[in-house]
Structures are given as structure tokens and as C-alpha cells.
Amino acid sequence: MDTLQKEKNIALIKDVLRNYLLEKGFRNTPERYTILEEIYNMDHHFNVDDLYLLMLQKKYHVSKATIYNTIEIFLDAGLIRKHQFGEKTLTSSSYEKSYFDKQHDHLVIYKKDSDKEIEEIIEFCDPRIQGIKEAIEEAFGVKIDSHSLYFYGTKND
């Protein structure tokens, strides 16, 4: 993605956050926008510890509690998505930016002979899954807004 498009995307998500904060009556703090921008500059999944360390490295003065609270706001505003990949970490939830992303699924590959230590996460989109979703909607008379599908495994030798 080129720099101009990235700047437009950042401006758009900041507007989404501004409108959400106004609608909910939350404070409009610069820290929230800084955290949001850092998340949208990432190209991978992250956890709170990752984000906190990144913010410290960039000399931002933000507490881990602020990050946790801000993450909850971003989740509710639809700006990020939460995942439970089953990894063994201090903060077991992973997150990813979601505002511009289409629905996708995950293949979680664990390191061999480890206790759920993640080697790699592969995102994929398979049109057959869309067909399954549509069949479920028809069979049960519902409209599915989103879904999550995770496959877990290790690489073959």
C-alpha cells in the first residue's frame, strides 16, 4: 500500500474513533489516537505486551492499563479484532486491525515439541467457507455477520 493511501486510511480510522468516542461520551485523548495509529502501522497480530513494548521503544508515555482500556474501546468500535490462538503467553489474547480487512480465517502453526508456542500464523480466505456460511444461513434462517475459524497444527517433517 502506498504512503498516500496509508495516510488516508489512518485519517479515516481516526474519524471512526472520534465519532465513536463522541457517541459514547468517552474522553477524546491523544493517547488513544497514537495507539490506534501504531496498531494500523503494524502488519501482524499483536498482544498487549507487544504493543506496550513498541510504545515504550518509541518513547510514548502510556501505561499498560491505558493500553488495556483502549483495546476494549477499539474492540467495541470495530477497529480491531480479538483472537484466542491458544498460545501460552502472559497475555493470551492476540489482536489485529480489522476496519479495512475482509473476513479471513487462520491456520495456527505451533513449534514442534513445544507447549503451544506459535511458530507462524497464516491468514487465508477460501471461497468454500463462504458457501458453508450461506448454507448455514439458509438452513437456520439467520444472517451471519461474522465468523472465526481456526485450524491448529504443526509442520510435517
From TrEMBL:
Positions annotated to bind Fe cation: D105, H147
GO biological process, one term: negative regulation of DNA-templated transcription
Cofactor note: Binds 1 Mn(2+) or Fe(2+) ion per subunit.
GO molecular function: DNA-binding transcription factor activity; transcription cis-regulatory region binding; zinc ion binding
CDD domains in the cross-refs: Fur_like
Gene Ontology CC terms, in alphabetical order: cytosol
Cofactors demanded by this protein: Mn(2+); Fe(2+)
Keywords for the protein's UniProt record, in alphabetical order: Cytoplasm, DNA-binding, Iron, Metal-binding, Repressor, Transcription, Transcription regulation, Zinc
Keyword match Transmembrane: no
Main localisation: cytoplasm
Compartments where found: Cytoplasm
InterPro entries: FUR, Fur_C, WH-like_DNA-bd_sf, WH_DNA-bd_sf
Oligomeric and partner information: Homodimer.
Recorded family membership: Belongs to the Fur family.
PANTHER family named in the record: FERRIC UPTAKE REGULATION PROTEIN, ZINC UPTAKE REGULATION PROTEIN
Name this polypeptide is given: Ferric uptake regulation protein
Species of provenance: Chryseobacterium taiwanense
